[in-house]
Amino acid sequence: MEYVQLGRSTTQVPKIGFGTWQYHGGGGVLRRAHELGAAFVDTAEVYGTEAQVATDLAGLRDDFFIATKVSPQNLHHSDVLAHCAASLKRLATDRIDLYQVHWPNPDIPIAETMRAMAELVADGQVRYVGVSNYSVAQMQEAQDALGDVPLVSNQVKYSLGAREIEADILPYCQEHNITVIAYSPLAKGDFSGPGLERVAGIANARGKTPAQIMLNWLVSQPQVIAIPKTDRVERVDEAVGATGWTMDPAERTALTSS
Ligand SMILES: NC(=O)c1ccc[n+]([C@@H]2O[C@H](COP(=O)([O-])OP(=O)(O)OC[C@H]3O[C@@H](n4cnc5c(N)ncnc54)[C@H](OP(=O)(O)O)[C@@H]3O)[C@@H](O)[C@H]2O)c1
To answer: Which of 42, 133, 160, 250 stands 20 to 30 A from 185 (CA)?
Structure first.
């Protein structure tokens, strides 16, 4: 596994972590991720998987980096504090490594939410603050409100089949040392969509799988990590096998040329 620094923090995180939306758990996925050095899990209060993550991490909590999220309807100051406490309980832990605002809510000021986030960091209940689905302007507003607390990450949809963030969010994050956590990095497991026409051919030529080409393309870029979801242990090995090698520039160009 390869590691990168999380935003402007001193913490290293694996380039591949594991998502848990529609995750069923119980199959050893997170334990295998730990064995392979990919001890990063992403959940959210809305997924209903925090308790399952806690169960799957029994005895491993201190080795794992746990990211979770507060839902957009819960972004008032007192709600953030209460919903963080509820997530901590479900996760059976005394600290969340990365607490993310799941989606912006135009009806609740970002500054109010970030005041609560900064308090949670000061109290030690949260180590790092992140956001998800934020625009550049919203990231700037969040960082202004956080003051000395760094905004370390923005979790956004990013794959070879969904490259919209390349217009502004990705370059902004790279310039300001904010980690991009790529969600739906495997295009939800459907490798036949637009933008993915050349994945299978390059996978065959390289002796890799399509999923490995998709993930390697993502995490070879500065400041980008990816969180595929799987319920299958063998796919943990496959995802981790997407790191430790690089594609040629010509292959990368071929993947993105239409
Ligand atoms: N912040 C947000 O708004 C947001 C939105 C969406 C997702 N997310 C996060 O990102 C995570 C990943 O995104 P996602 O679940 O939408 O999509 P994804 O990771 O792109 O795709 C997951 C699908 O791909 C399949 N899959 C996994 N490995 C595979 C492989 N090697 N070959 C073929 N198929 C494979 C999985 O099936 P099996 O389980 O059967 O392997 C599952 O059906 C989520 O779990 C969640 O944590 C965040």
So the answer is: 250
Q: Which among 229, 231, 235 is the best mutation to test ligand 1's pocket, defined by most ligand atoms within 8 Å of the CB?
A: 229
Q: Check which CATH number belongs to the domain holding 180 and give it.
A: 3.20.20.100
Q: Is 255 inside a domain boundary?
A: no
Among protein residues, the one with the nearest Cα to ligand 1's atom 27 is 230
The CA distances from residue 64 to 59, 85, 115, in Å, are 10, 19, 27
**Over the stretch 30-65, which tens digit does the pLDDT of each residue have?**
999 999 999 999 999 999 999 999 999 999 999 999
pTM for this predicted structure: 0.98
Tell whether 11 is covered by a domain.
Answer: yes
Residue 101 contacts residue 134 (beta carbons within 8 Å)? yes
In which band, very low, low, confident or very high, does the pLDDT at 195 lie, cut at 50, 70 and 90?
A: confident
Q: Give the other-Cβ count within 10 Å of 223's Cβ.
A: 22
Distance CA 31, CA 133 (A): 29
Other Cβ atoms less than 10 A from the Cβ of 164: the count is: 11
**Number of structural domains, the chain?**
1
Note whether 1 and 243 are within 8 A (CB). yes
